[in-house]
């Protein structure tokens, strides 16, 4: 039976976090879904970097004849920065926010409690988490005086949804959609519709640690790191084997550097703690590299030098 896509009804989007994911989400929302975006990050420096990336990508599209100068200007004009001092109050008018801060449950819980208090009662609160329980994040939206079983508690938490984009967001065609136990069908339908408007194909996963994507990807990356640790092959031979033997665009060690080794470790810890399954135990080498501050591409050193 053919299903119809409900209208997403997002007239203005908030994006929280101007790192590589947040910036990419802001760009595809402004370019593909043509929605005005309010971009917030507590660090003005990060916002500056994010906007520089947006400008670079738009220039590239103009250079390749995929956008006219005027179209690129329109896209750029749809991205507005919320001054850091406004805090989440600056996001008050949005119909949906996508949170894309680092993989830390406590940080996300604090953020979602504030978002639920500041935003319109009907606004969707989406998280781009790669592995953290959406149900826990949804539970954090309730203040101490609101019972999760009350009508008010159910209504507040029903607006939370997982909307997991992939890096680089403008290039990767997938969004994973995850429902918390509390998520309403309306929230799910609207979030899906928004992801489709951004030009993405949507897959659905249950709210389990790592969802489908990272529950499969992270053991693969970790196994590659353990092969390196055991001296089974060089980093180049591990990566080349997977690139040329299996047609992966990047080898697993290159991909880990690309994702960020701190992010890989945070996801692996969530998987391990959430399942108690030893197959998800992070390798010692990964832990050590993160302890050394070797975080992959973003820090200039990971399994490779950049
Ligand atoms: N942002 C935006 N666009 C980028 C980009 C970036 N950071 N890096 C590359 N691109 C674009 C380029 O501009 C180029 O676009 P055009 O074709 O429009 O010119 C295109 O990607 C191809 O780039 P290159 O030719 O420079 O390089 P490439 O062919 O080697 O492709 C790649 C680069 C797309 C990153 C490719 O190597 C790839 O697909 N790698 C795997 C990426 C992947 O698996 N991502 C998922 C990671 S997991 C995740 O994100 C979720 C999680 O929860 C951890």
Description of the molecule:
The protein has 306 residues and is of the alpha/beta class. It has 2 domains: 13-206, NAD(P)-binding Rossmann-like Domain (Rossmann fold, 3-Layer(aba) Sandwich), CATH 3.40.50; 213-297, N-(1-d-carboxylethyl)-l-norvaline Dehydrogenase, domain 2. 46% of the residues lie in helices and 12% in strands. It contains 12 helices and 8 strands. A hairpin with an 8-residue loop joins strand 6 (160-165) and strand 7 (174-179). The longest helix has 20 residues, at 44-63. The termini are far apart. The protein binds acetoacetyl-coenzyme A. Belongs to the 3-hydroxyacyl-CoA dehydrogenase family. NAD(+) binds at residues 17-22, 41, 103, 108, 130, 167, 298.
Present the secondary structure layout.
Layout: E1 13-16, H1 20-31, E2 37-40, H2 44-63, H3 69-77, E3 79-81, E4 96-99, H4 105-118, E5 124-127, H5 134-139, H6 151-157, E6 160-165, E7 174-179, H7 185-197, E8 201-205, H8 213-229, H9 235-246, H10 252-259, H11 261-275, H12 284-291
The chain binds acetoacetyl-coenzyme A.
| Share of helical residues | 40-55%
Question: Can you identify the CATH superfamily of the largest domain?
Answer: NAD(P)-binding Rossmann-like Domain
Low-confidence stretches: none
For the termini, the CA-CA separation is 50 Å
> Oligomeric state of the chains?
single chain
Any guess at the CATH architecture of the largest domain? Answer: 3-Layer(aba) Sandwich
What class would the helix/strand composition place it in? Answer: alpha/beta
Order of helices and strands: EHEHHEEHEHHEEHEHHHHH
Shape: globular
Kindly provide the radius of gyration, computed on alpha-carbon positions and rounded to a whole number of angstroms.
20 Å
* Number of structural domains: 2
Could you tell me the strand content as a percent range?
5-15%
